[in-house]
Amino acid sequence: MLYQCEIPERAGYDVVVVGAGPAGIGAAVSAARLGRKTLLVEKYGYAGGVGTWACCTLFFNFGVGGRQLVSGLAEEVIRRMDARGAASLMINDACQMPEFRPIAGRPLLGKVTTKTEDLRVVYHDVLSESGVDKLFYSHFYGVVRDGRRITGVVLDCLEGPVMIPAKVVIDATGDAHVVHRAGGHTEQAPADQTMHKSIFFIAGGVTAHDPAVNYQRYEELFAADKTPAMVWRHMGLSYQLDPGMVQLAFAYANGDGCDSADMTRMDHELRKRNFEVIDFVRREMSGYENSFIAHSAQQVSVRSGRHIRGVAKISVEMLREGAMPEQPLIYITRRFGSHSGDQKKGLAPERRGSWPGFSAIPYGALIPDEFDNVLACGRCISVDDAAMDTIRMMTTCMAMGQAAGTAACIAVDNRLPTMTKVPFAKLRQSLIAQNCLCCEE
Ligand SMILES: Cc1cc2nc3c(=O)[nH]c(=O)nc-3n(C[C@H](O)[C@H](O)[C@H](O)COP(=O)(O)OP(=O)(O)OC[C@H]3O[C@@H](n4cnc5c(N)ncnc54)[C@H](O)[C@@H]3O)c2cc1C
């Protein structure tokens, strides 16, 4: 079937970033601060991606083993959140309990929790102050392609479809929608071989209790098969900064994150399962007797979906070997595997490993191999599904977004024919100037 319609063309941009998750925010802020006319497109009404629409309040991976790996915009955002009383370091990794006091000038070496509504406002502020043009409530639909270049993006806005010309397009959609719609090659692991899907929710009305007692009880009930079906072995939770609010995150589903019908099925299943979870904690857990579902993720949340086929790729072998890849951009840990194997049933086989020291995301993993003026950043870069866990955290995604935004500016400024021609030393130098600690020697 051929479908044709007239689409109005709007003013063009140097850099168009599609998707306002942590990666897209990083890309747009860097591009705009470096002086390029930058547009950020998002289907929801606010930025933050999984971090703000999925009740996912924790920023992981700032530091590992006493060394800070990521700084840049992610740290700037957390410092602003701290000034509003909307961020806190966690006491430790296991307990998921905030310190409930200001971070002040202390280094960011552990996990940081945040208040979602504040984060939405801070992201809006940072983007506006940086000079990014935001076009939210707009669904990316397709591209105008000329050989190896994407010359414009087609958006479904509330007022109707529009076409926006672009010199460089950055795919920060999480699932490589831009590259996929442009006819580029993408990769995706089968649903039963990848990380499961979730709809996290925040329980309200939780009263004082000893979390350790609940953890112990949960494990006993799990061992006795008395927990709801399709839940994690451990009671996944995180205490929020607002009193009486706890994120509960242990129900899961398996399916295809890039298939509308399957996402619809999982949405139904997970929302029903969340009621089983709240009934269970009200019945079994001290402090939860009068708890309720206060709010829940906007949609099924996908940890790993579709990935670009890049000029370079992050693999488990690369992490295992430990040699730094060519053109290393953002430092990452040498570990893989998560959210598989340790649940009751129906999940991907156990895949887990870790080695000391660090590896890095190579610049080439951000470059789709079939396009000259396109970059990807965030969880849709070129990476083996099994190695996803080392790159997908919000801090890391934001840092690689900054790298993509910076590379786009260098390409536009110097009229480079392809993104592969961006001089790596110049890219690195600019990232260091933007206080991306991750780019230190
Ligand atoms: C359940 C769950 C829990 C997690 N918990 C944590 C955690 O505690 N800590 C942590 O650091 N990380 C966590 N993560 C990982 C982290 O949140 C994500 O990997 C990270 O947000 C990825 O960033 P991104 O910008 O690449 O993509 P996303 O956050 O997915 O953002 C992509 C953006 O693109 C937009 N978009 C997509 N398609 C279109 C379109 N067609 N048109 C317009 N806009 C579009 C989306 O609306 C979204 O805003 C979690 C992930 C999941 C799924």
Structure in words:
With 441 residues, this protein is α+β, with helices and mostly antiparallel strands. It has two domains: 13-189 and 305-339 and 360-439, FAD/NAD(P)-binding domain, CATH 3.50.50.60; 196-296, 2-Layer Sandwich (Alpha-Beta Plaits). 28% of the residues lie in helices and 22% in strands. It has helices spanning 22-33, 50-53, 72-83, 116-130, 177-181, 211-223, 260-284, 316-321, 394-413, 424-433; strands spanning 13-18, 38-41, 58-59, 63-64, 67-68, 87-89, 112-114, 133-135, 139-146, 149-157, 160-171, 186-188, 201-204, 237-239, 246-248, 292-296, 306-308, 328-336, 353-362, 374-376. Strands 1, 2, 8, 9, 10, 11 and 20 form a seven-stranded mixed beta sheet that branches. It has a four-stranded antiparallel beta sheet with strand order 14-15-13-16, with helices on one face. Strand 4 (63-64) and strand 5 (67-68) form a beta hairpin. Helix 1 (22-33) packs parallel to helix 4, helix 3 (72-83) crosses helix 9 (394-413) and helix 9 packs across helix 10. The protein is globular, with a radius of gyration of 21 Å. The relative contact order is 0.18. It binds flavin-adenine dinucleotide. Flavin-adenine dinucleotide binds at residues 18-24, 41-44, 49-51, 54, 56, 58-60, 139-140, 172-174, 177, 198, 200, 301-303, 378-379, 392-394, 397.
